[in-house]
TrEMBL record:
PROSITE patterns: BTB, MATH
Listed name of the protein: BTB/POZ and MATH domain-containing protein 2
Gene designation: LOC100283553
Ranges for domain MATH: 9-137
One of the protein's GO biological processes: protein ubiquitination
Length: 282
C-alpha cells in the first residue's frame, strides 16, 4: 500500500477559570494558549469569550493561529474542539472543526463556535465558574517521495526479510518439546522419561541421524535408554537441540557448574557443539 499523504495530530485541554470575570472583556478580545508544536510548525489557539463577528449571540469561539513560518509554501491544518467534563459525569459536547490553508506566520483560521455563551451558563460544563475545552490540531504532511533506487532497495530488503526464518521459531520448537505433541520417540534416563521428535533430533545431530534413521537397532524403536548422563542434563541437551539455547549454563555455584559439565559432555557426545555455541568457562 502506498501512502500519498500523512498527518500529525495533537490534542490538549484548555481550561478557562473565572468565566464571570472574563465576561467583562470587550468583544473580540481573546485568551491565548501556550505555543503548540504540531507537524513541524508552531501554533497558538485563541479563545474569544465574546466573539463580535457572530452577531448578537456573542458565542465562545476558537481560532487557530500559525506563529512559525509556513515552510514549503503553505500549511494545511484543522482545529477541532468540544466541551468536556473533567469529572466524567457528562459526555463531551458535539465536536466542531474548521480546516484552513496558512501561507505565512500570523495567518489564522475562521472562527469555530464552541458554544453559545448563554448555553454554556445553563449547561453542566460550567462548574465553579470554570469550563474546559478539548482541542485537537491536525496538520497535513506529504509522504516523502521515494526514488527508484531506494524503492528497489527497500523491495529487496523486504524480500530478503521474508526469506529469513521466523524469530519465533526457537520459541515454537521449545513449546513443541515441552508439550510433546506428535512425539514419536521416548528416552529413558535414570528412571525419567523424555518425549521427543525423531525428525528434529536427526536434523540437528549426526549421531541421532545415524541412530534413528541409519539402520541401527534404535531406528525402529520408540523407546531408547540413555546412560552416563543425568536426567537434568539430558533435558537441557534436548532443549539445546530444539532451541539452540542452554539456560542452565547461566546457573551459579557448584550445582550449576556440575550441570553445565554434564550438558556439554552430552552435547559433545551427540556431536552438537560448534565453535560459536556455549562452552564452559571456569
Amino acid at each position: 500500500m502506498q501512502y500519498l499523504t500523512d498527518v500529525a495530530r495533537s490534542k490538549d485541554l484548555l481550561k478557562v477559570v473565572g468565566h464571570s470575570v472574563i465576561k467583562a472583556m470587550c468583544d473580540g478580545e481573546f485568551l491565548m494558549s501556550r505555543k503548540w508544536a504540531v507537524g513541524g510548525h508552531d501554533w497558538e489557539v485563541h479563545l474569544r469569550p465574546k466573539d463580535h463577528s457572530e452577531g448578537h449571540e456573542r458565542p465562545v469561539t476558537l481560532r487557530l493561529v500559525l506563529i512559525s513560518e509556513a515552510r514549503g509554501g503553505d500549511v494545511k491544518a484543522k482545529l477541532s474542539c468540544r466541551l468536556v467534563d473533567p469529572t466524567g459525569r457528562l459526555k463531551p459536547s458535539k465536536e466542531n472543526s474548521k480546516s484552513h490553508k496558512f501561507y505565512k506566520s500570523g495567518d489564522y483560521s475562521g472562527a469555530i463556535q464552541v458554544t453559545g455563551r448563554e448555553d454554556l451558563e445553563k449547561s453542566g460544563y460550567l462548574v465553579d465558574d470554570s469550563y474546559t475545552v478539548e482541542c485537537s490540531i491536525t496538520v497535513l504532511k506529504k509522504a516523502p517521495a521515494r526514488n527508484t533506487a531506494a524503492a528497489a532497495a527497500a523491495t529487496a530488503m523486504d524480500r530478503d526479510a521474508a526469506m529469513l526464518p521466523s524469530l519465533e521459531l526457537h520459541r515454537h520448537l521449545g513449546e513443541l518439546l515441552q508439550k510433546g505433541t506428535g512425539a514419536d520417540v521416548t528416552f529413558h534416563v535414570s528412571g525419567e522419561k523424555f518425549a521427543a521428535h525423531k525428525a528434529i533430533l536427526a536434523s540437528r545431530s549426526p549421531v541421532f541421524m545415524a541412530e534413528l534413521f541409519g539402520g541401527m537397532k534404535e531406528e525402529a524403536s520408540r523407546h531408547i535408554e540413555v546412560k552416563d548422563i543425568k536426567p537434568a542434563a539430558f533435558k537441557a541437551v534436548l532443549r539445546f537441540i530444539y532451541t539452540g539455547t542452554a539456560p542452565e549454563l547461566d546457573k551459579k555455584g557448584d550445582g550449576g557448574t556440575s550441570l553445565a559439565q554434564h550438558l556439554l559432555a552430552g552435547a559433545d557426545r551427540m556431536m552438537m557443539l560448534r565453535n560459536d555455541e556455549p562452552k564452559l568457562v571456569k
